[in-house]
Design a protein that fits this description.
- By secondary structure, this protein is of the alpha/beta class.
- It contains five helices and four strands.
Length: 166
């Protein structure tokens, strides 16, 4: 999935190259911290890594963290008791406390960002379920570097709900 294929380089004139060199590019979503990959090494698959970011003079990367996803994704409603990330956390040998805590999963992924020196990066959480209904966790996640949180991600939350009707 998400294989990188080699493509022939396009020839561009000097004006186009000059314009490109002045651009500030931003990618507002990458799940790179979810996977057990060294982001300092060029990847042949998956979301962004530092060598590919440098190749295109990438200016800002939002590292989105995922703490829970449903099995059998459904656009109308998802069963909040299902979770694909638990199996991923176990398979990738994440710390044991991440197997049952969404907050610990977010903190674990935040610790991976510390290993990535980039031009600019923003740490974000997909869905407030990582707070685990505990206001203290908001401070813990902020202290870990999170600066953006989406209200929902696949599941209804106590501060937001599904607007879809049958």
């Amino acid at each position: 999935m998400n294989r990188v294929s080699a493509a022939e380089s396009a020839t561009v004139d000097a004006a186009t190259q000059n314009f490109h060199d002045q651009l500030f590019t931003a990618d507002l979503h990458a799940d790179s911290l979810l996977w057990k990959r060294n982001l300092h090494q060029r990847g042949s698959y998956g979301h962004i890594d530092l060598p590919r970011m440098l190749d295109v003079r990438h200016g800002l990367q939002v590292f989105s963290t995922v703490t829970k996803t449903p099995r059998f994704l459904n656009f109308k409603r998802n069963d909040a008791s299902s979770d694909n990330i638990t199996l991923l956390a176990i398979a990738q040998r994440w710390p044991i406390n991440t197997w049952t805590s969404l907050t610990q999963r977010a903190l674990h992924q935040a610790s991976r960002k510390a290993d990535v020196a980039i031009t600019a990066g923003l740490l974000a959480i997909e869905g407030l379920h990582a707070l685990e209904a505990d206001g203290y966790n908001f401070r813990r996640l902020y202290n870990a570097g999170y600066r953006m949180m989406g209200l929902t991600h696949f599941f209804e939350e106590m501060l937001s709900g599904a607007l879809l009707t049958e």
